[in-house]
Structures are given as C-alpha cells and as structure tokens.
C-alpha cells in the first residue's frame, strides 16, 4: 500500500467519556428497581396500589416538567414538540392521579367511564402532533401525500389485525353501554395512531438532534406497547395496579424526561461532534467523517425497511383477513373496508413513487451526462483515489496534461506518480487535511511534481476534496508558471549584466550568515570593492567596453572567492563579497586570513583586462568589516562601505579594515555638510583678505579674497575644511557666486573710501564654465559696483582634465575684454599648468605652495623654482609666490626674480577693519632692503601695468609692523 494509501486507510477508534454514563446508569437503576418491586408485588397490596398509581403519576409529572423546562430554556425549531410532549405527560400524570384517588384514597374501584379516562384519552393527540413536529417535513406535495398514505397503511394494517383479534369481540358484548363500548374502542384506536406515527417517523425523523428524537420515540413506543398490552382482554380482566406492566409505563415516562437533557449534556461535552474524553482521531478519518461513514453504512438497512413498510402493512392487512376467513367467521365489514382502503392506498402510493422515480431517473441521467461532459471536457485532470491510495478514476484530460492514458493510470498507486522528494510533504498535507473538520476545511491545495509520459517531472497544482474515505484530486499543470516564477525570482535577486547576486540577495545572505549557528562566529566578514579608474574607461572607450570590463571583473571575483562564500555586484563598479568564518576566535588570525583573501582579490582585479583588443587597467579599493556580536546586516555592510571609502581616500588600490572612528568621522562630516547647506542663508560666512606684497618695495599690490565659515557653535572653518564636505555641486556653486559678489562689493566700497587695490578671487576652471556664472553677470557686477578695469583678478585653480581648453580659452578671453586679469594658480604642480600656460591667456603666474616651502632647504627645488620664474619673466608675466612664511623664503624668491608674495611672513588673512589699516600704512618691511622696481600687480590693462592708487599715509602711523615679523590670521570682530 502506498504512503497516501496508508494515510487514507486508517480507521478511527471509538471512545465515550465516562461523564455521560452516570445519568444513564442512574436511570437504569431507578427503572430496574421499580420493575423489581412490581415483580415482587411491592410486599403489600396497599403499597402496590400506591406505587402503581401515584408512582406512575409522579414519573409522568417529572417527564412533563422536564420537557417544559427544556422547551423554555432552549431555542430550537423543535421547541413546540417538547411542549406538546410535556402536555401529553401531564395528561398521563393526571389520569394516574385520578386512578390513585379512587383506589388508594377512596378505596373503591375506578368507575367506567371516569375523569381518568378523559386524561388518558387526552394523552394521545398531543403526542401525535409532537411526533409530526419532529418529523422531517416533505418538500413536495407528493411527499406529504406519501407521508399520509404511509401512516394510513400502518394504521389500517394494525386496525385490521387488532379488529380481527379483539376489537370486534368488544363491540359484540351484550349488556355493554354505548359509552363503555366507545371508550373500549378509543384506547386501542389511539394506540394504533401512536404506533403508526412512531413507525412512520422512525424512517422520516429529522437529522438534527437525532439522539433526542430517537430517545423520545423510544419512550412513546414503550408507552404505546404497554397500552396495547393493557387493552388486551387477557391482561385487562386480571390487571390491578402495581403489576409488572406498570414498570413499562414508568420507564417510558422517565425515558422521555431524560431525552432532551441527556443529549444536551453530550453536545456540550463534545463540540464539533466529538465525545468528551474520546481519544484523538487518527488522521485517516476525523470524528464527524467516521460518524458519517458509519451512518452511511446503516442507511441501506434503514432505506430497505422504509421501502418495505407499505408491503409489510399490506401483508399484515392480508393476514387479518385470512385470520377471519380461516377461523370460519364471516368477513367483517370493517375488516373488508379497511383492507380495501389499505390496498388502494398502496396502489396510489406506488403509482406516485413510480412517477417520482421516473422523474428522478431522468433528472439523474441529465445531471450525469452534464457532469460527465464537464469532467471529460475539462482541461484539468480529475482523479479519484480509493482509501488504499489506488487510483479508481482518471479523467481523459490526463493524456493531454500528463502525456499518459487515463486507462494506464487507473489501478496504479498515487505514490508511483509523485516525485520522491515531494512525497513526504504530500503525505503530511493529506494527513493534516483529513484530521481537520470538513466544515472548517472542506478542501486543500497540494503542489508537487507528477511524472509525465516522457519521464519528465511536471509541476502540478491539485485541489483536494474528501470522497467516501478517499480523495478527489482536481489537478492542473503549472510547470510554466513555476518556471516563470523561478525566473522572476532569479532576476529579482541577480544582476542582469554579470549574473552575480545583487544587493537584495547579498543582504539576505549576510542576514543568514549572522543568524542561527553563525551568530557567535566572529570570523564572518564583508568586503566592499570599488574599481578605481572605471569611470575613465567608460569615458575613453565607451559604456559597452565598460560593461565588458565589469563582466570580466565579476568572473574573476566569482572564481577567486571560496566555495560557500558569496560574490555580488551592488551596482555600478561596486562589488561585494561575503566571507564566512571558520569558527576561530583568534582575532589576529581571522584578520590575517581575511586580509590575505582581500589582497588576493585586489591583485586579481588589478590585473590588465583585454577589452576590444585594448589592454585596460583598473585598480581595486577594498574595505573590510568583521561581524561583531549583535551587529545587524545593515550595520555590517555600512562598516565595510566606510572602510572602502577610507581606502579610496588613502590613495586607492589598497585594503582598509573598518575602525570605529570611521563612523565618528562620517557622522561629523555629515553634520558639517548639513549645517553648511544653511550657512549662507543664515549669514555665517565672512570674507577675509590676505595682502599680496611687492617683494621689492613691500607695498600692498593686491588682496586675495578668502571665505571663512564661523558656524553657530563658534567654530571657524577654513576653505580646506568645509569645501571637503561640500560635495553638493549646487551648494559649492552658490558659495562661489557669493564669494565673487562679496569680493567685488567690498573692493568697490574700499575704492570709494580711498583704499583702491585690486582684489583676487579664486575660482575653479569648472566654475568659470558653469552656466551659473554667465559672462553678462560679471560685467553687470563690475558695472553695478563701479569697479574700474584691472581691479578684479580671477585666479584659476586646479584645471580639471575633463574641462575643454577650447571653451575655457573663449571664456577667459571674454573676461579679459572686461578688464579682468587672469592668474594661473598652482604653477609648477603638474603638466596641467604647462598646458594651461601654453594655450590660455594668462597674466599672472602663482607658484605652488609646495615649491615655496622647500625652496631654501632643497637645491633641487631652488633650481626648479628659479627656472619657472625665468619662464614667467621671459613671457612678460608677473609672478606671485604662495605660502611665503619665512624671511629666508622672501630673500630667496626676490633673488630669483619673483615679484610678489603672500604669506605669514607679511600678514595672515585680515578682516575689513584691519585690512583698511594695512592699506593706510601701504607697505610691509621686506628683508634685504628695497629696490626701485614698480609694483608688479599695480600695472595697467592686460598686458601692461595696472594703475594702483596708494594712499598717502602719515609719517607717524599707529599701524606698524616690526621687521621680519610673521602676522597670524586675525579673528573676525563680533557682530
């Protein structure tokens, strides 16, 4: 037997709770005690009379009270039936009480007729109506007619038999009054009616609250049986109260009293149809299902008896007629009339049933054809598995879906077509489904792989229903859907270019590595990798070549990591690797091992690539972060990212391990960048000016504008500090515009105050070409503030290789037409300065600070600087040395022919107040004496000297500088 068959073939074990036996045992003991007392005569005639009359009255009264209170406290559609049973029992109690009044209290025979007869006759009608309420109501007129005919068939047959045996003799007794004869006939006729209803309703009782109905029918049946025995002439002539016949009436009353309450307790003990204390049902069949199967097995017997009822009634009627004929009596009219009506009722009933059966047969055939067409025409495969797991039916759609004939599958085991890897899950789901209640879970879904006719495995989704202990599978092929889902899942978790896991899958793998048994494994590490120089490859060779380089780099990365580790592409030229630990707790050992892996990856990724026949080189900057106790995947990946950026900032093509101070630095820079965004609008920027001094005369030839940021916390930041975090190009452009506007505006104000001196504004080549600084804006700025020609010098800084020299030349030429002079910053720092000198219209050369700092100590730098100054002299350009901080540097530069300098040897950056005081003095002491050369930056228009108005300072000026003194940067006065 297959595994699913073993599950389906399991049978439940029956069990009853012990709590329901106590009322039943008590009821049996009381009835048994009463029967024993009746059989023994109760010990005395007086006690026998009392128990035979008032004992029966008490039992009937208990039944009346029980049914009444149950009907009042329970909401049910059978409530009228229990009220009628209560009334019927009350009538029986009244009749027995009257009987006891005569026999026990008055000590004389009960007269006939009497009030007791009235009560006893009133017992039948409520009971009959109550049984009709309990019956399952027919839904058609034919059903009602058949119910009436069935009742008459039973009643007529019983009337025929009892009339032949006793009732006819009762009517022929002489000396009997009409009232006495009618009373003698009334009891058996009512009993016949009750028996007819009991027998008819036994096969038509309602399925709801069936146990209570069965108990009530049994109680009434016992009462009717005792009434029938009492009406028999053999027993009635010798009957007296307290005999064994009273035990039947007594038991019938108590059984009717117990009927509703005993079933109510059972239902409260066992919700969902399971008895309290019953053992758990096996998965094969649940409790309700097992009861349904047991009920199904009893239906054929009950249905056969119900079908045979009319024929049995007719047989009883024929026996009554035959008894009269064979006994030699003349055929009684009552017997003949009743027999004829019974036969007529049987014929009518059979005719109705025949017509009904023909109609049902036709309807059943239509439905069967309809459902057969649906099943055979359905694209889904419908299979029925027997309780043993054997397939009993397979729809023809199997040939198109599975590639196997339906006849081939019929008779095979269900397990034989299920993939072995899926069989366990299927058995588990079937076991769980069969253990659940059919009302709560009528169906379930199972997805597994079925074997096709070609030997391939198809993904099949099945809807499963219960079917006579087995299962019905409604299956469909979902292989394409599963394949599409798998492809979509793969696409969602992998990079489309390199086929490596993407950021989502990599994060998932990191989370898995930090969970479970690896929670305490400190050797797990994450590597973030960035390809240095990849953007230049994209710009030089194109994006297609860049994609090919990324594919090759991904292949190298995938081949270099260990088995079990994960390589991923996070986006752009950023990759990552998850290195799983080996359980070691030696921090130095694990750091050495992971660093060795990272270095190997760096060397591998830095090897030359062949792209479109060209050898391309890129480097790799790698950041490493180790897992720590309690760290989250997000924090671990962020730490590796910070370490990678530290590696790029430290010179690229290197490996950096994460350190906690990296995060603190990032937080500081982030806070600084956030405050910088609002610093301009909040007025936190101030403009300082550093004098540019003629190295021959010591006069101030110009001033260099420099921005300073004093934050709300009182911290003063230099441009080198705050421009490093101003990665927002819009914010940097806004700062450049502010610097230019403030410098021009303050220069114009100084000129109007008699302190005219050219102002130098430092701008990058990229900003010079930025649309945020159009040509017309500079001209409008100079015109608006009345700044004369030659009063503005733009110092072009760090020529960007991405900037077009053609565009830059046009821009600078246009600015020179406005009277703006151009200075080249950083001269001597690289080949870019030489190219700029060769192609751009430059008026002033500014020596790089790196040359000036070592010009005294290094003979090599002395010669280089001297050569550069000769180039400036030969080209007819002024020269400015940046970073002149020592007197020795002043003397060396002046000896080489350098004309101007700025630095701490003369003055640091000054606020507006101290700047004007310096301009009033007009010059600074120069080491080595003075010469007669004109101030270089005080020449005329571009290509010639710029006129500079030097104010006449008084002989005694309070703002004096001691010789050879370095002037530090002054603070900004409080506002």
UniProtKB/TrEMBL annotation:
InterPro entries: Biofilm_reg_signaling, EAL_dom, EAL_sf, GGDEF_dom, Nucleotide_cyclase, PAS, PAS-like_dom_sf, PAS_4. Residues 669-923 form the EAL domain. Residues 367-437 form the PAS domain. Keywords: Membrane, Transmembrane, Transmembrane helix. Pfam families: EAL (PF00563), GGDEF (PF00990), PAS_4 (PF08448). The keyword Glycoprotein does not apply. The chain crosses the membrane at residues 21-42, 48-70, 82-102, 114-135, 142-165, 185-203, 215-235, 247-263, 301-323. Coiled coil: none annotated. Residues 522-660 form the GGDEF domain. Residues 269-293, 932-975 are annotated as: Disordered. PANTHER family: BIOFILM ARCHITECTURE MAINTENANCE PROTEIN MBAA (PTHR44757:SF2), DIGUANYLATE CYCLASE DGCP (PTHR44757). This is Bifunctional diguanylate cyclase/phosphodiesterase. It comes from Streptomyces cremeus.
